[in-house]
Amino acid sequence: MKIYTIALIIIVILVGLPFYWFSLRPMEIRQGCFSVAQANAIEDTNPPLYQGSEDRIVRMQLQYQLIESEYLSCVQEKGYPN
User: Fold this and answer.
1) Is 71 exposed, middle or buried (CB count within 10 Å of its CB: 0-12, 13-18, 19+)?
2) Which is nearest to 58 in space by CA: 44, 39, 45?
3) How far apart are CA 42 and CA 56, in angstroms?
4) What distance in Å separates the CA atoms of residue 57 and residue 27, rounded to the nearest whole number?
5) Which of 53, 61, 64, 74 would you label with 16, given CA atoms 20 to 30 Å apart?
6) How many other C-beta atoms lie within 10 A of the C-beta of residue 80?
7) pLDDT tens digits for 53-77?
8) pTM of whole model > 0.85?
9) What is d(CA 66, CA 55) in angstroms, rounded to the nearest whole number?
């Protein structure tokens, strides 16, 4: 009975570890990096600086570029290949 319990634990670890490493971990990295990049981009493009409708378009374009660059650097820093 004890051997079956140990075998079951080993099987769960052998199945669970690759699932975490190749599925859950990358998802957590991507979500965390996107949240940080988005927050930093919004903070860096302070809305009071951009008042008119044309300025809003410029701000949105700048935010997109900031999000993309910060996201890519964060993902690479965390060791997740794009």
Assistant:
1) buried
2) 45
3) 12
4) 30
5) 74
6) 15
7) 677 788 888 889 999 999 999 999 9
8) no
9) 16
Do 59 and 45 contact (CB within 8 A), yes or no? yes
Alpha-carbon distance 56 to 61, whole Å? 9
Within 10 Å of residue 36's Cβ, how many Cβ atoms?
14
Length of the chain: 82
CA–CA separation, 46 and 4 (whole Å): 60
Residue with tokens 């290949």: 81
Tokens 């699932």 correspond to 19
pLDDT tens digit sequence for 20-45 = 888 889 999 999 999 999 999 888 87
